[in-house]
Design brief:
Blueprint: H1 3-22, E1 42-43, E2 51-52, E3 60-64, H2 65-68, E4 86-90, E5 94-98, E6 106-110, E7 113-115, E8 132-139, H3 143-146, E9 153-159, E10 168-176, E11 181-194, E12 197-210, E13 214-215, E14 218-219, E15 225-238, E16 241-256, E17 263-282, E18 288-312, E19 315-341, E20 344-369, E21 378-400, E22 405-425, E23 428-429, E24 434-448, E25 454-465, H4 469-472, E26 476-478, E27 481-484, E28 492-504, E29 508-528, E30 531-551, E31 557-570, E32 576-577, E33 585-597, E34 600-611, E35 632-644, E36 647-654, E37 673-681
Parallel strand pairs: 6-9, 27-30
Antiparallel strand pairs: 1-2, 3-8, 4-5, 6-7, 8-9, 10-11, 10-37, 11-12, 12-15, 13-14, 15-16, 16-17, 17-18, 18-19, 19-20, 20-21, 21-22, 22-23, 22-24, 24-25, 25-28, 26-27, 28-29, 29-30, 30-31, 31-32, 31-33, 33-34, 34-35, 35-36, 36-37
């Protein structure tokens, strides 16, 4: 199809979309009547207490269901693009970094229970986006309450429970033109009387399939992905006691666009299974406000398949790396909240997690000599079994120093032990090794609520990331390098100091944060020739300013969400660089408004999203070319309509000017595209 024909088709489609929107038949994911962020939301992440965002000493953003309805739910990462300092990386599977820290340094929780990952890439978010009630995002270290992997921050995903009616069914379906892809989900939920209490339930099924992404410069071949999920919840309430069981299955697969000829990566399988039991009781006595216990068991089965061909005539080398990993995790968490008086609260908790990984890797090397007889392929087969056990106790105390000033102090004691329990290469046993660590982390915060509309805060917090089993013990082949584990690795630690202000004046809102973070014993891959090993780099430090704000002018509401930051890595050889993969500026700027016509209501949103250029230099000062991202900004438009009380349709047009762009650690962005979603409730 010619460019003129493509443009003509696009104009006709856009005209149809706008006409439908005007008639109230279409709606997007941008419910502009809702706030970009909410300062009155109740949160638990960061402090362990249920407090409003205005009173939380941590840098925290909450995305609630009413806000998420305005966003086309391609993935959970789509809900996080508005949060300052949050970047979504793409390596076939989406992962989230915060304040420049990779996904391996960001803790991902589901209902307060941590997902663990022992690959070299970090934890993807494996949840059907339509099942989420809210997402709490802590920016910066939060290990006192959360535990390991919380140097960059925390993403706590709280899933929906039963609806207040006996039976309700909701179906959501959508289409993405950029990938010729779709997502569909169906949920049945409700609450019924059961015995002397109430039984709430929810059963959800979802699936998504994305094809190769279309960009202004052509198709990313290959870049498809697909997922399928099934989740179930059942809870029983009697008086002030609540018992629940939750189960979920999430299957994810993708092919990675590598931008390198002769190099392919296939991630055909990453399957999560999880079952959790929980109990919560409130107001047990004048002193005991709440007791919560939960236990969970989860498995992750992963397949990784990469192939690289390189060489020069007449000799060519093909290396295929194939691995199957099976991870089993058991966890137990407990927490009790106490009130010893009207001006103080205390929370005590414990955490136990047992991770075990079994991995089988096969590396096949074929050497082809075009002027000599072919050589038989050589094969290396490895088998490893390793595990990590973590035990931790923590406490946090909140006290009112005056009617306007609240202080929070907390500490966490932890003990971690890891071991390589079995290892062999081509049937020959390898030496075994182990690693362990223990210590205490701390946090302290101060909030001054100078008025109902303004709060000022200061926060000092520590973060801790224990090495993954891959970093400690396992050998992996990828690209042109073989990476070896290092059993002598030390955990990463980080300390952050923050100053912040929050203002909620009705028509206007503002949340501003200044932060400085210093990380020690930073873990990075050090490459020497064709081999690499994980090492503790000397240090990393980051500082910056995060801003979220909006102001209602009546007919329109301009808003902004930005992060301005610098992040410096100092490698073990003394080389320092600010080229650490962190954009100096990133964020979103827009204006939104409401419409009301033909007995329907909706909203519209015009916004720019972008980031400055960024890249990563290694310890020798060499820039990593494949990850390099140029600065970019895209103009986007979203519109929505509530057709009836039970039917909503939504559409979002991305990259209106069809600009070619590629952010750091991301695939080239989609060209001009539209996402259309419809939701019906019975």
């Amino acid at each position: 199809m010619s460019i003129m024909n493509k443009t003509d088709v696009f104009v006709r489609r856009m005209t149809s979309v706008m006409a439908l929107c005007a008639a109230g038949v279409l709606s997007v994911g941008a419910a502009c009547a809702e706030e970009v962020f909410e300062l009155d939301a109740i949160t638990v992440t960061g402090t362990g207490f249920a407090v409003q965002v205005m009173d939380n000493p941590a840098s925290l953003t909450v995305q609630r269901e009413t806000q998420m309805k305005r966003i086309a739910p391609k993935s959970v990462a789509s809900f996080l693009n508005e949060v300052p300092s949050v970047q979504v990386s793409e390596e076939g599977i989406e992962r989230v970094s915060i304040r420049g820290e990779t996904a391996a340094r960001v803790a991902v929780l589901i209902n307060g229970q941590m997902l663990t990952d022992h690959s070299n890439y970090g934890q993807p978010i494996m949840v059907d986006p339509t099942t989420i009630e809210r997402i709490e995002v802590v920016r910066g270290p939060s290990s006192v309450i959360t535990g390991s992997s919380a140097i960059g921050g925390v993403i706590n995903i709280i899933l929906k429970k039963g609806t207040p009616v006996p039976f309700e069914m909701t179906t959501t379906a959508g289409y993405f033109s950029a990938t010729k892809g779709w997502r569909v989900s169906n949920t049945m939920s409700g609450t019924i009387a059961a015995g002397a209490g109430e039984l709430d339930y929810r059963l959800s099924f979802g699936a998504s399939k994305q094809g190769d992404r279309e960009t202004p410069n052509g198709t990313l071949d290959p870049s498809p992905s697909e997922d399928q999920s099934l989740s179930a919840h059942m809870g029983w309430t009697k008086d002030n006691h609540y018992f629940a069981i939750d189960a979920m299955a999430f299957d994810l697969g993708a092919e990675v666009f590598t931008e390198q000829d002769g190099f392919t990566i296939d991630l055909p399988k990453r399957d999560l299974r999880k079952v959790a039991l929980s109990y919560e009781a409130t107001d047990l006595s004048p002193v005991v406000d709440k007791v919560a216990l939960n236990a969970f068991y989860q498995t992750v089965d992963r397949v990784f398949d990469s192939d690289i061909s390189q060489g020069r005539f007449p000799v060519f080398v093909d290396i295929n790396a194939y691995s199957e990993d099976a991870q089993k995790t058991m966890g137990l968490n407990g927490r009790v909240e106490l009130s010893f008086g009207p001006t103080s609260r205390t929370v005590f908790g414990f955490e136990y997690v047992d991770d075990a990984v079994v991995t089988d890797k096969t590396t096949t090397t074929r050497i082809t000599n075009m002027v000599a007889p072919s050589q038989p392929a050589s094969q290396r087969v490895g088998h490893d079994e390793a595990g990590i056990k973590t035990l931790a106790f923590y406490g946090q105390h909140e006290m009112d120093l005056s009617s306007a000033v609240t202080a929070t102090v907390g500490a966490r004691w932890f003990n971690v032990s890891a071991s390589l329990d079995a290892s062999s290469t081509d049937g020959v046993n390898n030496p075994l090794s182990s690693n362990s660590d223990s210590g205490i982390l701390g946090a302290a915060g101060l909030v001054w609520r100078s008025s109902d509309a303004l709060s000022l805060r200061a926060n000092l917090s520590q973060g801790y990331t224990y090495p993954t089993l891959s970093q400690l013990f396992l050998t992996s082949v990828g690209g042109s390098n073989t990476t070896y584990g290092n059993p002598d690795l030390k955990p990463e630690t980080a300390t952050t100091f923050e100053l912040g202000a929050r203002y909620d004046g009705g028509a206007g809102q503002l949340d501003a944060t200044l932060f400085y973070t210093k990380s020690d014993d930073y873990i990075a891959k050090v490459i020497t020739g064709s081999t690499a090993v994980w090492e503790n780099v000397d240090e990393a430090r980051a500082y910056g300013l995060e801003l979220q704000g909006e102001y209602n002018l009546g007919a329109v509401t301009p808003y902004a969400s930005f992060a301005f930051m610098r992040r410096e890595i100092t490698y073990a050889n003394g080389f320092s660089t600010y080229d650490s993969g962190t954009p100096r500026v990133s964020g979103r700027l827009g204006v939104k408004g409401d419409w009301d016509a033909w007995n329907m209501a909706g909203d519209w949103d015009v916004f720019m999203r972008g980031a400055s250029g960024a890249g990563m230099r290694d310890q020798d000062g060499v820039m990593d070319g494949p990850s390099l991202g140029g600065g970019y900004a895209t103009l986007n438009f979203a519109v929505s309509a509530q057709v009836t009380d039970s039917f909503r349709v939504s559409a979002e047009v991305g990259n209106l000017f069809d600009r070619a762009y590629e952010g750091y650690d991301q695939n080239p962005g989609a060209g001009r595209n539209i996402a259309v979603f419809a939701t019906k409730t019975w």
